[in-house]
């Protein structure tokens, strides 16, 4: 496997489990464009959940170590300036437009994130103790890791995002629904496109359960792009829990409080319990 360019990315921001000896699972969660791992962690930590007023997502999952990586600065074709982003993209309205611009950033990000995944899997002892996810462009990037990596994870969590190269994936997945052979071909095709490598690690990873959430009123990433992710993953054989929201902050492009955070906590608790090794 190619070595991830770890020196090009800042060190991830870490929220350790409490107490440290309780560490059983890890969540690697990616921020959106223009943000950082630290900013996302701070915003998540101050977001409201149901229950005690002092509760936050970290206190509700004390056994989890959170890893918040940060993208490196890139020139944005949309905003015509340098900003932290996982990959460049020409249009948010149509992510397929000039999608060749996305390849370089996604190649580097996938290799970097696979390195983080492998490191956390080594720490907790099993890929089924690790959850991967992200919000907005972070979800899009994490999906490329999921589809190319061959990992069988405890879960995947994506909010307010989309799937890169959707037409490339969708055209075949609808005609070859639940075909394990075709799922392998998708992984190989995406790895060839991104010039990354693919290892099965014992299976193709399609038993990873998925939680997706999207605001019906999202002003930045159209709701239809979020539901497209749902449909593509289901056609590929993933078990997908789908949640729709309305009235979230940032014009619908954020976690709905408290429902969205509650849904994440519930999903993680369920999947971590199911994946715990005896």
From TrEMBL:
> What does the entry list under GO cellular component?
cytoplasm
SUPFAM superfamilies annotated for this entry?
A: alpha/beta-Hydrolases
Superkingdom: Eukaryota
All copies of the Phospholipase/carboxylesterase/thioesterase domain together span: 23-177
Give the Gene Ontology MF terms in alphabetical order.
Answer: carboxylic ester hydrolase activity; palmitoyl-(protein) hydrolase activity
Q: Which InterPro entries match?
A: AB_hydrolase_fold (IPR029058), LYPA1-2/EST-like (IPR050565), PLipase/COase/thioEstase (IPR003140)
One protein family per Pfam = Abhydrolase_2
Q: Which family does it belong to?
A: Belongs to the AB hydrolase superfamily. AB hydrolase 2 family.
Which protein is depicted?
Answer: Phospholipase/carboxylesterase/thioesterase domain-containing protein
């Amino acid at each position: 496997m190619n070595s991830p360019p770890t020196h090009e990315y800042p060190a991830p921001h870490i929220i350790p489990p409490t107490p440290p000896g309780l560490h059983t699972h890890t969540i690697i969660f990616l921020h959106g464009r223009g943000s950082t791992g630290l900013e996302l962690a701070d915003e998540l930590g101050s977001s409201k959940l149901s229950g005690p007023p002092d509760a936050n997502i970290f206190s509700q999952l004390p056994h989890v170590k959170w890893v918040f990586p940060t993208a490196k600065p890139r020139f944005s074709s949309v905003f015509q300036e340098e900003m932290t982003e996982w990959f460049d993209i020409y249009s948010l309205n149509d992510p397929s437009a000039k999608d060749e611009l996305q390849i370089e950033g996604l190649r580097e990000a996938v290799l970097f994130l696979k390195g983080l995944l492998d490191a956390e899997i080594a720490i907790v002892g099993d890929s089924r103790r690790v959850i991967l996810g992200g919000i907005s462009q972070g979800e899009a990037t994490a999906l490329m890791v999921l589809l190319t990596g061959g990992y069988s994870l405890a879960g995947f969590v994506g909010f307010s995002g989309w799937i890169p190269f959707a037409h490339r994936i969708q055209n075949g997945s609808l005609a070859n629904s639940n075909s394990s052979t075709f799922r392998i071909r998708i992984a190989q095709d995406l790895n060839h496109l991104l010039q990354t490598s693919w290892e099965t690690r014992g299976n193709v990873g399609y038993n990873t359960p998925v939680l997706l959430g999207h605001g019906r009123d999202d002003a930045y990433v159209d709701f239809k792009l979020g539901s497209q992710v749902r449909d593509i993953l289901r056609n590929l054989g993933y078990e997908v829990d789908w949640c729709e929201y309305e009235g979230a902050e940032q014009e619908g492009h954020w976690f709905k409080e408290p429902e969205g955070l509650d849904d994440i906590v519930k999903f993680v608790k369920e999947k971590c319990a199911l994946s715990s090794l005896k």
